[in-house]
């Protein structure tokens, strides 16, 4: 058992090590400044999973009920202050007499989303996983990630390299599997045991910020009224990438490439500063349409001029957005004077 030392915070003024502050504590903002929405999320009383995106939008996933009584997974977006109409993930067609209690699992990374869920359609219990490259707009064909007969509770997270890690329970074993950025399934690995059914299961990324350090995940779960947890350590992102490169991973995966695809128009180019300004369309889950500066390599900058329409990719590096893989579209437009 890990014992946590309690943290005690003392004011220096209170123990005589510093003079007491003469200024009054800051006044909290008036209640009129707080904006609270009470609009209910889609899904009725169904158990739900939520995730959010850098542009302020959010996604909810829940087990819906179709007109033919199938308990398939549905999602809806929170955008511009309201929930969208629910839409179906790739359907399983699972028809059951009683609604399953376990909700789907959901996570996001930048503008991508991943969902994992249990289904027993066709009397074949399994955990399935699907990725959305555009914040839940479209979903890829699901993968079957479990190999035996799993319980219904599952959890999933994105790693910084675009891979996903999913956990579930089969028999007494809690099992983990990583899906590479090229959508290849890694080995199924036992990470914990529990003789009792799980009340809940939550996987959280603790450390994956550097390419060279091991990836650490926290696995928390409840069983029989007890709250349990364990730390799962994976190889570093660099090691995982090397493993991915030697497997049968030759398929291109446009939606999981580095950075984000964008469509825009060049506003200005500054060769001396190594930068440009471009006006681009919305990037789902990442940012709205806007005009913003980019850094770019000199060869890219020399090929551009104001008024050109382009497709490209952008990626954040050292708090600056870089534009790369630029492809020009048609003739350049005349500059406005």
Q: What does this entry show, briefly?
A:
With 337 residues, the chain is mostly beta strands. The protein has helices at residues 237-245, 298-302, and strands at 48-52, 58-63, 73-79, 82-83, 87-88, 105-109, 112-119, 126-132, 143-144, 154-158, 164-170, 173-179, 189-193, 198-207, 214-223, 226-236, 260-270, 275-280, 290-295, 309-317, 320-329.
Note the main sheet.
5 strands, antiparallel
Helical percentage: under 10%
Structural class: mainly beta
Q: Encode the helix/strand succession as letters.
A: EEEEEEEEEEEEEEEEHEEEHEE
Kindly provide the name of the CATH class of the largest domain.
Mainly Beta
Number of alpha- plus pi-helical segments: 2
Instruction: Please report which band the strand proportion falls in: under 5%, 5-15%, 15-25%, 25-35%, 35-45% or over 45%.
Output: 35-45%
Describe the structure.
The chain has 337 residues and is mainly β. It has two domains: 40-251, 6 Propeller (Neuraminidase); 258-329, Beta Barrel (OB fold (Dihydrolipoamide Acetyltransferase, E2P)), CATH 2.40.50. Helix content is 4%, strand content 42%. It is built from two helices and 21 strands. The chain has helices spanning 237-245, 298-302, and strands spanning 48-52, 58-63, 73-79, 82-83, 87-88, 105-109, 112-119, 126-132, 143-144, 154-158, 164-170, 173-179, 189-193, 198-207, 214-223, 226-236, 260-270, 275-280, 290-295, 309-317, 320-329. Strands 1, 2, 3, 4 and 5 form a five-stranded antiparallel sheet that branches. Strands 19-18-17-20-21 form a five-stranded antiparallel sheet, with no helix packed on it. A four-stranded antiparallel sheet has the order 6-7-8-9, with no helix packed on it. β3 and β4 (82-83) form a beta hairpin. It is globular.
């Amino acid at each position: 058992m890990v014992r946590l030392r309690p943290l005690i915070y003392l004011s220096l003024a209170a123990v005589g090590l510093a003079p007491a502050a003469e200024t009054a504590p800051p006044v909290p903002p008036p209640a009129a400044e707080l904006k609270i929405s009470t609009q209910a999320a889609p899904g009725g009383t169904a158990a739900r999973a939520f995730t959010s995106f850098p542009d302020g939008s959010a996604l909810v996933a829940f087990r819906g009920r179709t007109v033919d009584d199938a308990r398939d997974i549905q999602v809806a977006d929170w955008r511009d202050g309201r929930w969208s109409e629910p839409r179906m993930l790739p359907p399983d067609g699972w028809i059951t007499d009683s609604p399953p209690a376990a909700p789907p699992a959901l996570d996001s990374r930048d503008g991508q989303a991943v969902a994992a869920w249990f289904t027993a359609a066709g009397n074949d219990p399994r955990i399935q996983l699907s990725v959305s490259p555009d914040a839940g707009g479209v979903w890829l064909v699901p993968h079957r990630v479990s190999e035996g007969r799993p319980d219904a509770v599952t959890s999933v997270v994105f790693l910084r390299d675009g891979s996903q890690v999913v956990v579930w329970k089969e028999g007494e074993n809690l099992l983990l599997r990583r899906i590479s950025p090229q959508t290849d399934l890694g080995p199924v690995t036992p990470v914990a045991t529990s003789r009792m059914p799980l009340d809940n299961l939550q996987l959280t990324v603790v450390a994956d910020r550097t390419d060279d350090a091991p990836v650490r995940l926290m696995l928390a779960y409840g069983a029989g009224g007890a709250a349990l947890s364990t730390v799962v350590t994976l190889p570093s992102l660099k090691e995982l990438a090397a493993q991915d490169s030697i497997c049968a991973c030759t398929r291109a995966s446009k939606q999981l490439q580095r950075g984000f695809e964008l469509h825009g128009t060049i506003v200005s180019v500054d060769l001396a500063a190594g930068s440009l300004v471009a006006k681009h369309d919305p990037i789902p889950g990442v940012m709205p349409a806007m005009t913003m500066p980019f850094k770019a390599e000199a060869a890219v900058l020399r090929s551009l001029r104001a008024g050109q329409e382009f497709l490209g990719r952008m990626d954040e590096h050292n708090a600056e957005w870089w534009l790369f893989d630029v492809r020009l579209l048609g003739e350049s437009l005349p500059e406005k004077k």
